[in-house]
């Protein structure tokens, strides 16, 4: 419990440094994606279940400070409620507070070493820190725990990912994370097997469709990648990584205006034009790149220095080529499904 106490203490310090926003007779208005969500902000929840419910509402509303407070309140009332501590770690992981996230997951696994959610989250944390071997160990443990729920069929002689079974209760992000690791190792067939297992867990997951699209893109199967990206945005049109990856794919396919439109779903048109220009730049299509960089500058002349820098780079590359030199171009890379790798954008 020492780690939980430390988390509580650190949260108290953070709470003292951050405003919780205006209160209206004890009711706080929280805005998320244009919607107003109202809930009571009470200094002391009366039960763990109430605190869990309030934490979930706060998280969905985008108020991570309030969600953290309520999850920690659960642990004050019910220290063995590991679900709450996993959520504390998850929020810290999403915020980039890796040390606090690891502390939370380690506390859970010390008491419940086969907790699939904690194993999955610890794996994703290691993946985000590029500790791939540690990530794989944790994610495989989470999958092994999940597989204990199933009785192996004698007729099933398949091994590896192909021999796994899943249902709606399986930890989707564990299977998805193992797919990411396989993609990073250029083992696209294995990656897609894991993603299809994740798809069986939640057939309408935008995350999984993005993962499959990413894998197909990296494998050079662009038509399949486009199909998955289109399906993903039909499931959740607010999932930004999908639009970014779809825009990158369209730009690589030479469908530049469609690419700009895709990027515009998550950023301003000036930034979208710059991103398409950057893809053209790394492909060596300098004339097309210049066109899009100039368009970005015209749309935002005083507030978009990145486009100016990229335009200058185009001119520098031209000069080098005129002198008979050669310039190595980086490969444009998509936004990975669970961990962000190098993006096509240059900001």
TrEMBL record:
Keywords recorded for this protein, A-Z: TPR repeat
One Pfam family per UniProt: TPR_16
Domain of life: Bacteria
The UniProt record lists the keyword Protein transport: no
Coiled-coil regions, chain positions: none
TPR repeat windows: 48-81, 270-303
Descriptive protein name: Tfp pilus assembly protein PilF
Organism: Pseudomonas inefficax
